[in-house]
Amino acid sequence: MNGNGFGRLFQFSTYGESHGDAMGVVVSGCPAGVELDEEKIQRELDRRKPGQSMITTSRGEPDEVSIHSGLQDGYTTGTPIGMTIENKDARSGKYEPFVTAPRPSHGDFTYSAKFGTRNWGGGGRSSARETVNWVAAGAVAQQVLEQSDYDVEIKAHVNKIGDVEAPEVTFEEMLEHTEENDVRCAHPETAEKMRELTDEYQKKGDSIGGSIYFEARGVPRGLGAPRFESFPSRLGRAMFSIPATTSVEYGLGTEASEWTGHDRNEDWEFGEDGDPVPVGNKHGGLQGGITTGQPIYGEATWHAPTSIPKEQTTVDWETGEEKNVQVVGRHDPVLPPRAVPVVEAMLWVTVLDFMLLAGRINPDRLDGDVGEYDTDYHPSSPHNE
Amino acid sequence: MNGNGFGRLFQFSTYGESHGDAMGVVVSGCPAGVELDEEKIQRELDRRKPGQSMITTSRGEPDEVSIHSGLQDGYTTGTPIGMTIENKDARSGKYEPFVTAPRPSHGDFTYSAKFGTRNWGGGGRSSARETVNWVAAGAVAQQVLEQSDYDVEIKAHVNKIGDVEAPEVTFEEMLEHTEENDVRCAHPETAEKMRELTDEYQKKGDSIGGSIYFEARGVPRGLGAPRFESFPSRLGRAMFSIPATTSVEYGLGTEASEWTGHDRNEDWEFGEDGDPVPVGNKHGGLQGGITTGQPIYGEATWHAPTSIPKEQTTVDWETGEEKNVQVVGRHDPVLPPRAVPVVEAMLWVTVLDFMLLAGRINPDRLDGDVGEYDTDYHPSSPHNE
Amino acid sequence: MNGNGFGRLFQFSTYGESHGDAMGVVVSGCPAGVELDEEKIQRELDRRKPGQSMITTSRGEPDEVSIHSGLQDGYTTGTPIGMTIENKDARSGKYEPFVTAPRPSHGDFTYSAKFGTRNWGGGGRSSARETVNWVAAGAVAQQVLEQSDYDVEIKAHVNKIGDVEAPEVTFEEMLEHTEENDVRCAHPETAEKMRELTDEYQKKGDSIGGSIYFEARGVPRGLGAPRFESFPSRLGRAMFSIPATTSVEYGLGTEASEWTGHDRNEDWEFGEDGDPVPVGNKHGGLQGGITTGQPIYGEATWHAPTSIPKEQTTVDWETGEEKNVQVVGRHDPVLPPRAVPVVEAMLWVTVLDFMLLAGRINPDRLDGDVGEYDTDYHPSSPHNE
Amino acid sequence: MNGNGFGRLFQFSTYGESHGDAMGVVVSGCPAGVELDEEKIQRELDRRKPGQSMITTSRGEPDEVSIHSGLQDGYTTGTPIGMTIENKDARSGKYEPFVTAPRPSHGDFTYSAKFGTRNWGGGGRSSARETVNWVAAGAVAQQVLEQSDYDVEIKAHVNKIGDVEAPEVTFEEMLEHTEENDVRCAHPETAEKMRELTDEYQKKGDSIGGSIYFEARGVPRGLGAPRFESFPSRLGRAMFSIPATTSVEYGLGTEASEWTGHDRNEDWEFGEDGDPVPVGNKHGGLQGGITTGQPIYGEATWHAPTSIPKEQTTVDWETGEEKNVQVVGRHDPVLPPRAVPVVEAMLWVTVLDFMLLAGRINPDRLDGDVGEYDTDYHPSSPHNE
Question: What class of enzyme is it (chains A, B, C, D) (predicted)?
């Protein structure tokens, strides 16, 4: 209702502003019995964290996660997992000129118009910094799925920055190459060109847009409810929640307008297991809003970061004067490279949520039937020692 | 949760399958005191109904709405508005070949894989026929907004079919021309070309994709919650709920990837009323997920209808055999022309819901303060006479 | 949000006023593959319907249910079940005196104060007539549970009217005797006294309060989430939603204040199957808000019907005058006898909802795994024939 | 859905177990512009905290709240308020005997049966310690209401322990006397007897049940939606969420069964402001599920604490043996005295939530209209300094 939570059975609620003292997330509805590896969560946070390369903000945040609840001897207990990530390197001073003079195309004005006030340091709640919480939640969802009977794989990479576009790559190439370069493009040569282009804009005090291709494999067929809780509906909501997203597509996306029914339609044949399978996957893994078992794939676009050192004009609603501004903080020149782990996190969360809702994974506990306590259970130590 | 409802304060829940005896929708959370014009609802249903032109299915549905509750003397009472639309011209016989042999790229297989069974006549619940309910709900939302203190206007038109694309049109042109032609394109010359193209595919026994441009004017600034209930999040969910949608964009959409921050950013100036306004609207009326007060606009794409007379191949899971099929029912050769009123309905609902949530429109009653009964109130007659 | 729906996975949304043309309910989230017996639904409606005895209103409603969707060949399809019950015997004339002069202790004034207006015939939306929808939804839930692998039984009876209180009865006595008498008390001698007492008040133009004892057997252990979605939380909400409920208790209820921990606590022993079971059931089947597997039982109280022929005083907010009123419609002299099927319905719905949420019953389909279409499936006829 | 959150517009989500390292709560949907006094929150936590008297557990928790987000210069910003309360004095050792041998009538077994495992130190998530989060959320709601245009007052006191029952007291007496004594009974002489009774049971190694009377004044009329979101429905859910609650009543409660309609009904008269008011308040401030503007009052019962030093019997599911146990931790001998602030907190939250939903208090900001930024706004310092 208030926009600070996502998910139905697997839910998370977040708090925190860019320059507050801590970011936090409560993961509610994680099944019990999952061995939760804190380092794996940390590894995902590290992929998103600032300062990891020259094309990310130089803000020095270690982004260390602390887990406060929901575990017994390293296993989830089915009760909420509270996590905190402290903010260590907030420098709000540079934002003082913008308190009553909104930065161009940022959320400054709309937040003030909605709430009458805002936490203005670093963009406050509107900052993409807040997605650190989402990545933590996604890393929990990922571990649940990895320990389930299903073999779901999710990967995203940057397929376009400015006018530099990557050729189609395989899922395996995505797994292999995405993390090799700073722009997170799975096509190494393109990655280099993207990097050069980004550097160029950064040097000019400007920024540039881009897009991400994502794919989920191994998602079983039959997930997604008709209509308003269809898989695409949830996916659309998830992706558009990421700050600065301006488009979401799946399957043929915008190109579908140019395809005829006959060319796009896919015949059915019997697969290896004797079940019907579609010949091809132009449908992007989704028919009638429900998964077919084929890979789910799509794209999303992010506009260029609005925080740029180039001179721009704004107005100060307190003084009533126009003024020139330069947003000289520590900012990313392009969003998709750091959005890759966020996109993946939202996919993990979305897929798991649908799996739980379909009873594919027991919502109460990963293993065993509800009602069966564990007779072998003998933890070595209480949680708090 | 189950996908059959949409909205938070202004909600609607639907039932009905393509070939069931009736479609139905319950609108819950409509403020009291709205003069509800049944004819206006009917007019919207007529825009969506089958058989309205040569490029829509010839199924003969009058789509007459009956209202069962929620009114007193023609005014809403704040209690749920139950509406029914009877199905009069369902002919399920033609669907018998597909009971155990899924139509290519339709929802037949996924519904059966999810539920083990399905209502197979006319595509059952997966049919776009079900959006008749949404249009009824949208027509209620529209009347609430029209009778409110706000001057919200919403309009959509078909801006692309196949490779025929309309040039940019003004909102006024949309209002004037959209309903003049069967394809619902606001640019008359393009409309003619679209119509020709559609006819051509229809003659070949094929179908074609297309897209819709939509715009909402007069939506006040400050609507939309941060993060997961941002305006784009709700918009994305709403649009992707419409069957066969493959992309949703707002503002610059996919093109945003090629714009630099400096070129896309918009300076602030003081508007006529002395308040800051952005210079331009490349942001599509949304900054930080919240409305700026500028027009909200975007696009969505629909793939070609999957029901085509051209021969295709499928498999029958009962007999274990391949077979050739022709989907020879009564089908639209292109979706966007009839999707225009559905898109508009989802926008009316979404905007109203945000207005109620922000307390912009009193959630309990359109006029007056909660707690004040109407001392002049003297209805001439009870509801049921 | 708006109070017109209940449930999470198994949900229902309702519409309709006492004197509107129809009542309606949409059941969303019913698993597919349930053989739905319309007569069983009707039988439950008949238990609740007016005019069934001398101590119920003489309003002549057949309360015939029509099902519009959600079925294929008599089996549920997992898509929403739309049901309508027409109102046939509404006579609003007698309510005209109360349009601007609220009946004592009724919802007339509060509805008008909230919404500024109201549907005033027969109490409109505030009328207990609306619970006909709940009973229809409950009858669906009951059939799902009856066809599941679980052996859940639910029964309620009237255990108190005025100062006449029934002794404790067994579940078997409830099953056997409750429906034998008009007051629905499972203790025949007490039933007679209750009946006499009720007649006496009815003759005086007055009414009387009462309470219901309810019990659910066979609910497996482990249901109910911690805290705000505990089983008692859901139960409390369900029961207090029934009009005129003034108390809800489970287990020892209000008496628990006088029990010591040692006397109330129940030791654990090993049951027949080797699992721990509590010795006794003073806990009412619920510990830590979660089911223990023991019968869940409790009580709820209904105040006396507010509509009485005895003279009372009210004020007319239009004329500004006091006036004497007699509510001379067709009214029940006591609520619990007709509330019994409503209480049972809310229990069926609540238990099923928890079963689905725990993955105990597959939320998508009663039989088989999601993803497995039915290879033997060959319906004889389409839904609409 | 998962039971870890409460509220619709004013929501809170919690995490934390009795012996985890911290408890935490995220308050989402608090309007902007509220001056949030941390000390007032602390004061409420102090009323609930352990070790405050001889009849509460001697666990030494300072229960100091830290606020991590949602503020700018001491005022709320409309974004989520994240709060943490560290656990300082958890001693899990004493719980080791119960890891596989459930304590009688506790949540040990049901949690294990639901989740297969549990956080067993101090009762983990099932511990009433978790209500510290609720009190923090309630203290925020209280401050919103206190700074609004409404004059809502909420108070509760212990009206019964064992067989010692307080006579009726006025709201003023509740305000004056409740906090004067350890048992939190507003009737001093009764308080003394309650204290003696409690001491007696504590000395015997036993515990005792009790009940709380609560009242809310100044709640405006017209709040509460029909049916499933009626005021009593929300109240019932709120109260039954508090651990160990076995009954909830409002107005005449269980006694309503013995009242006739004529005796319970209340005539209408014109009040001082010329509006209809009921003569009397046997209806407990609620008619048709909606507030009348009269005080809302009711009672709830808590069973005796289940943790008692007296010897009891349990079974160990690992060893398969019966064993005698004594729960010798630090426990309250009676629950209501410390439940008083929890009851009040749930009332503050519930009332505020209804006020926001009715648009009575602007959901986005306490002062001013949405869309109006604050031209005078000039904070002295960023949030994080």
Answer: lyase
Of C17, C82, C120, the CB nearest to B69: C17
Task: Judge whether A372 and A42 are in contact, CB under 8 Å.
Answer: no
Q: Which of D109, D314, D358 sits opposite C292 (nearest CB)?
A: D109
Residue A377 confidence (pLDDT): 58
pLDDT of residue B291: 97
For residue A303, give the nearest of A329, A330, A339 by alpha carbon: A339
Fold of A92-356: Chorismate synthase, AroC fold (3.60.150)
Whether the predicted model's global pTM rises above the 0.95 cut? yes
Count H helices and E strands in chain A, helices first. Answer: 8, 18
Say which of C358, C360, C364 has its CB closest to residue A358. Answer: C364
For residue D113, the distance in angstroms to the closest alpha carbon of chain A comes to 4
Residue-range domain boundaries for chain A: 92-356
Cβ contact (<8 Å) for D370 and B220?
Answer: yes
Report the first-to-last Cα separation within chain A, whole angstroms.
38
Residues of D in contact with C283 (CB under 8 A): 105
CB pair distance less than 8 Å for A364 and D95 = no
Give contacts of C293 with chain D, Cβ < 8 Å. Answer: 113
Average pLDDT of the segment spanning B116-133: 90
At the top level of CATH, which class does the domain B5-357 belong to?
alpha beta
CB–CB of D62/D69 below 8 Å?
Answer: no
DSSP type of residue C32: B
A&D contacts, CB < 8 Å: 293
Q: What is the pLDDT of residues B269-278, one digit of tens each?
A: 999 999 999 9
Chain C CB contacts of A228 under 8 Å are: none
**Distances from the Cα of A156 to the Cα of A140, A179, A248, A337, angstroms:** 18, 10, 14, 10
Residues making up the annotated binding site of C are: 48, 125-127, 288, 303-307, 330
Is the pLDDT at D376 greater than 70? The verdict is: no
CA distance B251 to B284: 4
**Which pLDDT score, from 0 to 100, does residue C59 have?**
78
Reading the block at residue D104, the tokens are 């009688």
pLDDT tens, residue by residue, C172-227: 999 999 999 999 999 999 999 999 999 999 999 999 999 999 999 999 999 999 89
State yes or no: B48 annotated in a binding site.
Answer: yes
pLDDT digits (tens, 9 = 90+) for B10-59: 999 999 998 889 999 999 999 999 999 999 999 999 999 888 888 887 77
For residues A311 and B263, the answer to whether their CB atoms sit within 8 Å is no
Neighbouring C-beta atoms of residue B139, cutoff 10 Å: 27
Of C8, C87, C116, the CB nearest to B365: C116
* ipTM given for this complex: 0.96
Residue of D nearest to C100 (CA): D276
What are the tokens at A159?
């397929």
**Nearest-CA distance from C99 to chain B in Å?**
7
Minimal Cβ distance to D266: which of C8, C104, C232: C104
Question: How many Cβ contacts (< 8 angstroms) between chains A and C?
Answer: 46
Q: Which chain D residue lies closest to C314 (C-alpha atoms)?
A: D268
Q: Is the CB of C84 less than 8 angstroms away from the CB of B68?
A: yes
